């Protein structure tokens, strides 16, 4: 019972002391003038309108009143960007600020070729011809000279070098690949030898090949029977 009787008066003393300190703090706060606690707003500077700023220049020595009026009537510069959509032409070719369109038709001896592949030489830009053989290469970088190629299944590749002035009137004619011997081929004659055997006159390895066992294999009876 001794510890309890010893700490009990001490607890009351601490409680009373705390109440006294709280009362003194509240009294001190109630005496502080409210005007000292007010928040003073910071004035915000207003932006001068464009027209007002321009009219204020009338007193400057560098501008006359008429010049200042011209500046005041001029709208402020825009910060937005715009894309040029110029459609001016250059001798028939549709040209913009830096791009143009190349147009033409792919034909053979019988008429238009549909589905032909048309490309710019060494350029990924390409398209295919329509049913009437027409094509359009859009978004081509403007230049003075172009190399256009065309190809279709069963035809040899053909190409043309055209200028910007002719970029809207290309006529590309394709020639068919021979599926049989070309009877109209003009064989040359060399040292009295005619036909394909004349190739051996310039290619000296050909006579060696004729005497080689490999070249005679297809005529060997045993080989054919195998």
Descriptive terms for the model:
226 residues; alpha+beta; Immunoglobulin-like; four-stranded antiparallel sheet; 6 helices
* CATH class assignment of the domain at 89-173: Mainly Beta
How many helical stretches?
A: 6
Parts with pLDDT < 50 across at least 5 consecutive residues: 80-96
Helical residue percent band: 25-40%
- The chain-level mean pLDDT equals 73
Q: In whole angstroms, how far apart are the ends?
A: 125 Å
- Radius of gyration over all CA atoms, rounded: 48 Å
Shape: elongated
Q: How many strand elements?
A: 10
Description:
This protein is of the alpha+beta class and 226 residues long. Among the domains are: 89-173, Immunoglobulin-like; 195-225, no CATH class. The chain is 27% helix and 22% strand. The chain contains six helices and ten strands; from the N terminus they run H-H-H-E-E-E-E-E-E-E-E-E-E-H-H-H. The chain has helices at residues 2-30, 50-55, 65-73, 199-202, 205-211, 221-225, and strands at residues 89-90, 93-95, 99-108, 111-112, 117-120, 126-128, 134-141, 145-151, 158-163, 170-173. Strands 1, 2, 3, 4, 7 and 10 form a six-stranded mixed β-sheet that branches. The chain is elongated and about 140 Å long. The termini are far apart.
């Amino acid at each position: 019972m001794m510890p309890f009787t010893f700490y009990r008066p001490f607890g009351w003393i601490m409680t009373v002391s705390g109440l006294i300190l709280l009362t003194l703090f509240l009294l001190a706060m109630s005496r502080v003038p409210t005007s000292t606690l007010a928040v003073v707003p910071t004035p915000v500077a207003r932006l001068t309108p464009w027209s007002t700023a321009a009219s204020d220049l009338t007193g400057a020595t560098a501008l006359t009143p008429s010049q200042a009026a011209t500046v005041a009537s001029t709208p402020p510069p825009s910060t937005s960007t715009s894309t040029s959509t110029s459609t001016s032409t250059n001798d028939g070719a549709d040209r913009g600020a830096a791009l143009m369109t190349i147009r033409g038709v792919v034909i053979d001896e019988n008429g238009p070729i549909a589905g032909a592949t048309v490309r710019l030489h060494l350029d990924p830009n390409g398209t295919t011809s329509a049913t009437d053989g027409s094509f359009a290469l859009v978004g081509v970088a403007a230049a003075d000279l172009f190399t256009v190629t065309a190809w279709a299944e069963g035809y040899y590749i053909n190409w043309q070098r055209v200028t910007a002035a002719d970029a809207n009137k290309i006529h590309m004619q394709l020639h068919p690949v021979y599926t049989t011997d070309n009877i109209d081929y003009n064989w040359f004659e060399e040292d009295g030898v005619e036909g394909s055997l004349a190739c051996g006159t310039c290619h000296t390895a050909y006579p060696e090949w004729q005497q080689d066992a490999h070249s005679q294999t297809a005529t060997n009876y045993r080989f054919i029977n195998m």
